[in-house]
What we know:
Blueprint: E1 4-9, E2 27-28, E3 31-32, H1 33-42, E4 47-53, H2 56-60
Parallel strand pairs: 1-4
Antiparallel strand pairs: 2-3
Amino acid sequence: MRRIGVVVPAGGAGRRLSSGIAKAFVELLGRPLLQHSIVAFLSHPDVATIVIALPAEIVTRPPAWLQRDRLI
Length: 72
């Protein structure tokens, strides 16, 4: 088994979206797009580490679903 690290860039402001919400936090099927991405990587057996690049204001106050034990 390979050990792969993944970097997920999610620091954009989403200014081009009409809602003004950062694209990573726009919901699709009841979950933010970022959560869909992270769950996909977590389910891959070779992924050992996931690093998420977030805006500073999200890092200091992450949503509950982004906390390690609530991701899935």
